[in-house]
Amino acid sequence: MPIFPETPTFSTASMFRRNRWLISLRWYAILGLLLGVLLLKIFEIGSVPSILWMTILAVVLFILNLFYFTFVSGKVRRGKISLVSLLNLQMAMDLLLLTILIYLTGCEESPLAFFYVFHIILTSIIFPGGFSYLYSLFVVALYSGLLVLEHGGIVTHICFFQDVHIANTPGLAISVWFIVVVTMIATAYLAQNVTMRHRRVREKLEIANQKLKEINKTKTTFFRYASHEMKAPVATIQSTLMVIEDILGQDVDDRVKDMLQRAIGRTAGMILLLKDLADLTYSNFQEAQKFENLDLTMLLQDLISDAQPNIERKNQKLDFVPPAYSCEFFADPIALNKIFINLLSNAIRYTQDDGKIEISLKQKGSTYVVSVKDNGPGIPESEQANIFQEFYRTPAARKLISEGTGLGLPIVMRMIELHKGTINVFSKEGQGSEFVVILPIGGSL
User: Fold this and answer.
1) How far is residue 410's CA from residue 415's CA, in Å, rounded to a whole number?
2) 3-state SS of the chain: helix, strand, coil percent to 5?
3) Domain boundaries, the chain
4) 8-state DSSP, 433
5) How many CB atoms sit inside 10 A of residue 7's CB?
6) What pLDDT shows up at residue 118?
7) pTM
């Protein structure tokens, strides 16, 4: 894990605010340390040299914090790396000074070891990623090293409280009470701070999500309205062009004939695009869905019957053996029609003349499995992950058939998702394709 990760979660401005917040907290820590030193002197508790060094530590911490404050408050605009470096410097120095303070107050006898917890909480608030784990290891290393130095005889153990017993020393009891109070208040403050930050982020996300939903609904409404209103005039233009082509007949300049055919082709493509846009936006209006009980076998038979003229025109063979049992399914018939019309149309369109198409319907456990298989050109394995993306068409498909919007399979995917189902594709280039739709029985209830 990098020490200075380039994470989008925290911006430069966010790091700047975290530096200022940590510096502000440290002023309170310095004040608390000086107040603690004062109480120790008043109640005459603890080693005098240790208290002197504690005062020196408070001064050092004050000077360091003044430096931090000057660094972030200067006229020079600091970059993200500089701000993260400053945060790490602050935290490392704080832990080092706290370890010295723990040593001065008796090492393992010192109640100040609990203050390590504050810094771990702070790192989890301030730093991204797993920084809190890194600093936990750093704390363990500091405290363990201090114990090794003491018990190894490298540094002398300071018996801060000497032979004083807390039960018989009111001043010492008050000092310990003071530490407990500070611990509780600081812990409550940090926990509340984390909660408030989380709540603010969640509220912002909820507001942003609501705005996105409203924008998406407006966009979808516009697409539905536009596709519906534009389809009729474009169809009228196409019909007019076809009538003009029939009137002019064959006795017309080749350039005019070519222009008419191109215009008719373009209007046909526009009508197809408008139809697909209407289908695509239909799946966004779940409140408009009307689910009802239907017979999946009859639905497929009706679609095959409607497609029969196109199948015969290309001299293709279509095999469909309906199951002997009833296949009742609770679904939106409009959405279900769109699913299998698209799959069947693609099979007919991309399968060569005299080709073969197979459709099967089976019940497997608590699901219906519908397979649409052809022996067409197939889909390269490298392209199969992209075919359900909107407006995507494989190079082979574009070369084979120029007309198409690339919206058919995305529409199929959305309609299947409305019914809590899945779709899988099995294909090899030059060996045909098979699309398998799995619909959970009762999954749409």
Assistant:
1) 9
2) 65, 10, 25
3) 12-164, 230-282, 286-440
4) E
5) 13
6) 80
7) 0.47
